[in-house]
Amino acid sequence: MSDIVKGHLSASLTVMIWALTFISTKILLKDFLPIEILFIRFLIGFFVLTLASRKLMTFRGWREEGYYIIAGLFGVFLYYYLENVALTFTLAMNVGIIGSVSPFMTALISRFILKQGKIPRVFVFGFICSMLGVSLISLSGTLNVNPIGDGLALIATVCWASYSLLVNKISGFGYSMIVTTQRLFFYGLMFMIPVLFFSVETFDFSRFMIAENVGNLLFLGVGASALCFVTWNFSVKNLGAVRAAVYIYSIPMLTTIASVMILGETLTIKTIFGILLTLAGLVLSELPNFLRQRKKLRQ
Question: Looking at residue 145, what is its pLDDT?
């Protein structure tokens, strides 16, 4: 199995799990502050990765370490903190729709700030198709806009795009994905501690006696953090930041399908059409890379 195929498979697994995180986070927000959920989640993830790797990454100098520090800031702390806070102001479907802009944001930063490559027209068309599809899946009736929540969600997409591009650079340093992710979690946790200290006055341990809370925290910590960050970083390493980011389009679609299969919710004609548009956008966004690879094989 080629590295590219492995990259696509790991990206698919990642978004399948991430599609369920909005539900878990929304449930936990009844008893926990956004920063508490974030800190506990990544603390669990850090310990799981430490047990898996059984070692700490060596220090090679501040220039290399700077990439880990900035990536931990953008991808582990800021992205999730802004997203969690956004969920307290706006609807989960709004955050899901805005979060789907991340692939296009990644392409924009790569093209206009890093000056890497061009954005094919078919990629833009794929983005438009996916956004239309995501909107049909997520919206019912009128759009409920909250400037604060939706604005924070949009800033979060810039943070995630920046993180993906940083990981693309970090993947060339030669470390395993488990050890690399462990390092990123460490710096993310360091940025969370001051916010946690000033946000939490008392810590209620009785919340951990509720099975639903424990289950959701373990899901977020072990599955959505420890496992998914490793598989996502692996995908970015093998596919590149822009190609891997395209999979983000599918998260609202997968969340809807999970709701139908697990919760028994109704699948409407509008939703089906939205799913088809989202899939078309995914195919169109990946089409330039497919044609490029096919051309190379013929040569």
Answer: 63
pTM of the model: 0.80
Burial class from Cβ neighbours inside 10 Å (0-12, 13-18, 19+) for residue 191 reads middle
Considering only 10-24, 66-80, 167-181, 241-255, which range has the smallest mean pLDDT?
241-255
CA separation for the pair 266, 259 (Å, rounded):
9
Asked if residue 217 lies in contact with residue 28, where contact means CB atoms within 8 angstroms, the answer is yes
Task: Report which DSSP code applies to 173.
Answer: G
**Cβ contact 208:28 at 8 Å:** no
**Cα(143)–Cα(135) distance, integer angstroms:** 9
Which of 19-23, 85-89, 191-195, 231-235 is predicted with the least confidence, judged by mean pLDDT? Answer: 19-23
Span between the terminal Cα atoms of the chain, in Å: 22
Task: Calculate the alpha carbon distances from 220 to 22, 43, 178, 296 in Å.
Answer: 10, 11, 17, 41
Residues 6+ apart with CB under 8 A from 242: 103, 106, 107, 110, 117
